[in-house]
Amino acid sequence: MTKRRDIYLYLTLLCFFAIITIFVVDGYLGVYDTFRITAGERPQKIDPDFWLHPDATYGTWVAWGEKVFFDYEIANHRLTGYSTEVNASVWRSQEKVRDLLTQTVTIPALSNAQMEWSIDTVELVPGGVTQGQSVQYSVRVRWDNIERRIILNINPGSFPVPPKPAIRLVPPG
Cα(133)–Cα(156) distance, rounded to whole angstroms? Predict the structure, then answer.
């Protein structure tokens, strides 16, 4: 009778450890990416969970004349090494404006790789844009079969405007 009880105990422990293993493998192991964007004095972080929906697009506002700094991290949470080519570029109206980064990264098991680049908005705003019109660009980052899109809404309403002359009020009379 004790042997049968021991078998049930071992089966219960085996099922418990199997469930824990499934949670660890499904929830932790994999390759994840994180963006950190700084525009002006506004740091923003895009965690891997944001990209769960295949058509997810992140948007941010940037004032004209600011530089936008990107810090991109790919975390390899697998038990083997990982290698890929990362391409980052700026697009407008489905046309590539410029390449920002092309880099082959090799990430050892359970490690990270970081890449950095920046965009100067002064170089992006096309001529003929008037004050008050916002201009949209997308930053596309591709690796393997994955594409991330970040929409930059550049607000040229912040063009440097020359100061207005002071109005001198003259009392009547």
Answer: 6
Q: Where are the beta strands (DSSP E) in the chain?
A: 31-39, 42-46, 57-63, 67-76, 82-92, 95-107, 111-120, 135-143, 146-155
Query: Would you call 49 helix, strand, or coil by DSSP?
Result: helix
**Mean pLDDT over residues 25-49, rounded?**
87
CB 156 within 8 A of CB 133: yes
Residue 172 DSSP one-character state: -
CATH of 26-158, one of 2.70.50.30, 3.90.1170.30, 1.10.10.10, 3.90.79.10: 2.70.50.30
Q: What pTM value is reported for the model?
A: 0.76
- The per-residue pLDDT for range 92-150, each reduced to its tens digit, is 989 999 999 999 999 999 999 999 999 998 888 776 666 677 889 999 999 999 999 99
CA distance 149 to 53: 12
pLDDT given at position 165:
52
Domains of the chain, by residue range, sit at 26-158
Q: Which of 41, 70, 51 is nearest to 152 (CA)?
A: 70
In the numeric block, which tokens belong to residue 146? 């994955």
Q: Which of 151, 112, 153 is nearest to 135 (CA)?
A: 153
